[in-house]
Design a protein that fits this description.
By secondary structure, the chain is an alpha/beta fold. 37% of the residues lie in helices and 26% in strands. Bound molecules: the ligand O=C(O)c1ccccc1NCC(=O)[C@H](O)[C@H](O)COP(=O)(O)O.
Length: 242
């Protein structure tokens, strides 16, 4: 059976505020107010998932852990938690929020043995974010090169990684449309579900991503388009419901 594309509205937190960045670059943020209010807005609009990111923890410019944990705990919907989860303590704290899964990024590039261990321990509560420029992975809030996408993917597949969140950094926060080629190429080399992230600008972009569900795309993260009111979440859910 082919499934409907899941939608994950994003709440990215920096300095205590919900923000969106362009290309994930520090300093490019537009602020959208209280993260909890944003998360509650998406929940009320019918979201089944929330993609919640602690950007300060990702960049190493502090953290919003307490606030992000409070948002995660107060949601009745599934939460994917991301940003700066790199060791036992940060993973335990993230999982203790009751989130459905966490998204590891930098750790998958810098401490692969630890990531293999936590994949073995936590199964599908662990996803790995593959954030790329071209086919080069980026870590530390997308500021440092971290190896080849396909080599890393093969390694993580062999370690049993349950799911990948794939972001084309060149598209992220730009409203320029998703990188469908990248998504197809990743789906062609792994049988694990893929969550698409970055660049969604329109309902047609979501419909285009939805055509890749049979190839292995499971969900799409939507950030800026919702905050910029390019469409409503209700319209987005309707667009992918067929
Ligand atoms: O997810 C991270 O850990 C992260 C780290 C550093 C910079 C950005 C990061 N995430 C950004 C997102 O997850 C966006 O919310 C998502 O890609 C949505 O993008 P868009 O729809 O283009 O606004």
């Amino acid at each position: 059976m082919t499934h409907r594309l899941e939608l994950l509205p994003a709440v990215d937190v920096r300095g205590g505020q919900a923000v969106r960045l362009v290309h994930g670059e520090s300093g490019s943020e537009t602020s959208y107010g209280d993260p909890l209010a944003a998360a509650q807005t998406w929940q009320r609009a019918g979201a089944e998932w929330l993609h919640l990111v602690d950007l300060d923890a990702a960049f190493g410019t502090g953290d919003n852990r307490a606030q992000v944990a409070e948002v995660a705990r107060s949601m009745d919907i599934k939460v994917e938690l991301s940003g700066g989860i790199r060791d036992d303590a940060s993973l335990a704290a993230a999982l203790a929020t009751g989130c459905t899964r966490v998204n590891l990024g930098t750790a998958a590039l810098e401490t692969p043995e630890w990531v293999a261990k936590v994949i073995a321990e936590h199964g599908d509560r662990i996803a790995v974010g593959l954030d790329v420029r071209g086919t080069t992975l980026r870590g530390r809030g997308w500021t440092r090169d971290g190896g080849d996408l396909y080599e890393t993917l093969a390694r993580l597949d062999s370690e049993g990684c349950a799911r990948y969140v794939v972001t084309d950094i060149a598209k992220d926060g730009t409203l320029q449309g998703p990188n469908l080629e990248l998504l197809k190429n990743v789906c062609a080399v792994t049988d694990r579900p893929v969550v698409a992230s970055g660049g969604v600008s329109s309902l047609d972009d979501l419909r285009a991503i939805a055509t890749l569900v049979p190839e292995g795309v499971e969900g799409a993260i939507v950030g800026k388009a919702l905050y910029a009111k390019a469409f409503t979440l209700e319209e987005a859910l309707e667009a992918v419901s067929v």
